[in-house]
Structure formats: C-alpha cells, structure tokens
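Quick start: read one record
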Amino acid sequence: TLYACMDYSVKRLSPEQRTVLNAISLFHAAFTPEFASYLLDDEEQAPRHLQTLVRLGLLNREVKTFQEGELRLFELHPMVRWYVQQEPAEYTVALLERYGEVYQDFVRQAYDEYDRSTPVRYLLRQSLADCDAALQYLPPTGKSNLAYCLAARYWQLGQNRRAQELYEQALEIAQELGDVRSVAVTQNAMAAVLSQQGKPQEAMKLYEEALRTTQELGDVRSVAVTQHAMADVLRQQGKPQEAMKLYEEALRTKQELGDVRSVAVTQANFSYLLLEQGEQQRALRMAWQAYSSLYHSGYTYDAEFMQQLLISFKGEILDPAQFDAVWREAIDVPQPEWLRNVMGSGNALEISKEAVQAVRDFVNAEDWNATLEVVQTQHELLFRPEVETLFEQNIAQARTIGEEHALQLLEVYLTILRACKDMGIQQAFDQLFAAQEDALPFDAELISGSIAALLGSPQERLEYMQFLTEQASSTQDEELKALIRVIQLALFSKEDLSQLGRDLQGVYRHAWETIAVSVEAGGMDAEDFEAIASNTLAVFGPAANQRNEWRTSLAELRNSATIEGRGNLAALLDAVIRLLDADGNPAGLGGGLKGIYAQTWQVIVEGLPK
C-alpha cells in the first residue's frame, strides 16, 4: 500500500532525522532554512538535516530569484505530509512555542519591510496559513502582537473581514492585559478598516477613543497618526475646515519627528484637500515634496501612488494649461516626462463620493464572484454615466504614461460594466465565466481531472500525484505551481478543502474553489442542492400534502449516500429528514455540516415559515 511504502522510507531514517521530519511537519507551507533552524533550536545542524531529507526525496527544495536576491525554500513532499497526518506527531510545548515565535518575528519584520521587499511579500503570502496557526501557540502578549501585524497584511490584501477579526482578537487581549498603549494602536487600526468599509461614524468613535488615550500617554507620534486618520474621515464627510486643522497639526508633529514616509502620506491627503479648497500652489508643492521624498527614500509603492495622484491633478482636477501655470509658480524644477505628457480629460469630472467608493469596491473585489456581488448591490451607482467617463479618463491616462498593466485592467472592467448595462448583470457575468474558462492560462482538464482524482481511489490519487509533479516541472508559471501544490496537498490531506488555497489569487483561486466545491459536493451539481432546499421549503408551504413522499425520497437518497461513503451528503439529508419529523423546528439539527452542505442547510433554515 501507499502508506506501507511511505512508512518504510520514514522508518529508515535515523532517530535524529525522524525528529527533524516530525518537527518541520508543523509547517503548513514552504519555509526558509532560518525558520527551520529556529524551530529546531539548532543553527549548526539543521541545514545539514534539511539537505539530507531533500536527497532522500522527503523534502522539496526550491530557490526563488528576485531582484533583491534569492530566497531558499523547503516544503514537505505532499505524500510525506499525507503520511505524517495519518499518525500526527506529538509536539513538545517548547517546540510549539518556537513555531509560534518563528512567525511572530517574521510578521513583525514584514510589517516594516513589506512594501520595500519582494521576497518578504512573496514569503508572507506563502506563509499565511502558518501565521494563522502560530497564533494558538503564543502567550497572550505575543499572540496580540502577531494578530495585530497579521491583520494589517490581510487588510492590505483586501481581506477586510479577516483583518477585522484579528484586530478584535488583538484588542481583546490588550484590554485583558491592561496594555493601554496597544489598545489605542489597535483601535486606530480597526477604525481604518471601518472607514474603508464605509462606516465613518463607527470609525470616528474608535479614533476619538484612541486619540484621548494617546494624548494621556503623551505619545506625540501616535497622536499625529490618529489626527491624520480622523482628518481623512472628516474630509470624506464633507467637513474640510475640521479636517484641515487636524492635517496641519499632524503634519507639523510628523515633520518634527522626521518620519519620511508618514510625512509624505499626510502631505498626499492634505494636498488633495488643499486643491479642493482652491489652494493650488500649496497643494501642488506639497504633493511634489511627498513624491520626491518617497522616491528618493526607496518607498516604491507609495511613490507610485503619489505619481498617480499628481497625474490626476493634471488630467482631471485641473486642465493641463492651468496645471502647468501653477507648476511654474510653485515648483522650481521641470515636470518629469511621465507628468509632462499627460493629456487633459476636458472639464473636471463631477462624481459623488458614493460612486467613487462603488468603483473602488468594483475594481478591488477579491474575485469575479465578489465582483458580481458588488455590481448587483451597487448597480445604481455604477451605472451612472459619469462612472463610465471616469474609466475612460483613467484609461487615457494609463495609455499616455505607458502603464500597460493598469490599462489592461481598466479596459477589462469597463467592458464588464458596459456588458452589464447592455445585456443584464447575470448574463454578462455568465458570459465572463464561460470566456474565462476558454481562456484559462492552463489546461481546463486540470480542474476536471483534479475533481475526479480527489473523488477516486488511493491508487488513482497516487497516479494523479505523479501527473501533477510532471505538470509542475514543465511550467514557469509560479501561480500555476502554487495551485498544483494545493491540489497535491489535498490529494492526501484530511484538512477541510475550504481551508486550503487561501493564498491563491485570481483565476487560480477560482479554479481551486471550483475543485473544492465540486469535491465537497461529491460530484453533485449546485442545482441538486438547490432542489433539496427548494423542495424542502415547498413541503412546509404550498406542497404540504407531499411531505411524506418527499421524506421517503430523502431517506432513499440518504441510504444510497451512506452506502457510497458520501458522509457529508448523508449528514445533510439526515438533518433535513429530522427537520421534517420535527415539523420545521431546526433546533439542535445541522451541527457539523461544512461547505456547500452547511450553506444548503442555512438556506433551508432561513426560508422556513416564521
């Protein structure tokens, strides 16, 4: 058997090698040799043991090359991970604490280096599952620190719900510990998430609490950060004078502290408000200072944002001639080429803050399903003529400055928006999903083949594992390799499939979600689950006279599912049968259901007569 083969290979290891293998099986994803050395508390021998496990085929090694240098990564072979999960090792408390500390230290480092280091960004995204797991092994202070820093990264990745959960966790611990400073810092961060979610009143309440605390502590840096954030919210709420006062105070403090990045961020937001208030020279001077300081200090991402802001000043808010005149008065250096060549977009575009936020939600949605939801809920704002004009202006600017990636993305979203208006939202997205399948950057059979293998026998899984290994070695697409690794892990893992693949992006994430949902459904179509829900609700309403007949059908389906080993389906059907027997009372039923089974049960419960 497969297990016997793996058992033979592992038992041939020396006791020391087996100890290393058990320890590194804690890692959910690829890890660096430094992570392993810290975990094993052995900087001298750990690298040698890793190389031995690579040579024996139990550990995969990969070198990622970036402009900043190389990143060496190790990862358990998927079959080894499956073997380890059959009889999980017993870990010492000290080992689990070191595992937690590995990711606490790494995420703290990444908090400062994320925007400036490609390897750090790559490694952090690969390590999110480990970061989440590490939380449970840290003492309260460490857990609070990790939760806070990790929340910031999830927020930056657009996963606001997870960010809010982590911030709440960090806040609760800080309050229990009586750590007043950490409470204020976390309230500040939570308020930023609320503000981005369009909840300014809730955000201001938290900001005000944080401001009082930091003022009482005499923490001038944190006071300035909070004042800046409050000014942003006030500007969005149409309170320019209050916002300007807070921007002035925050900027003055940050300049005294000499924090280049923080000063530039405040200058960026302040300059926009000044321009809105007619102080054109001061606004332009401040924006240029912010761009220059960020660019020369190596804050590439922030500098690119300021570049786009300056372009919008010239292309949208002021016409080119007016901008050039203000530039000559305010700035003593020539305009850079990327700014000099910006063409005007006609009169400044009048568009509401609500419409701008709807556009942001539209283009920043996590995947196409989330995009569909945004359009369905905010179509009244997105279908306004000025929104289409806004896209056209930004497309023209991107073309002018040679931003090909931004140009392509904007054109895609404008095409989707127009299709939704012309043929209807659902039909437009149905066509998008179909076209996406036709234009996948990999063979569509990878999806169907993976579903079949995951639902197949151990031998079929082993054969498919070998196929996937060949596919991974023949592609240069790193995102496809990541998808393949997730499928390989799923083949011999007992984990809930919905918990895998969280680091995948775009079409690769959509592909994995399609695989996971199909496997969870045991090969059933979504229509089958919809039929279970709709028929069940019907017999509690207009088709009440068919309740006994429906119960008999469900019992037959449940018995077949049990015989076929489809436990999740059997559990759902059993819960529905018990619901029928309880005359529609769901109390105590449906516990333990996951994925599409839990979703179907929820649909039934929510649709029951009140």
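Residues 526-607 form one domain.
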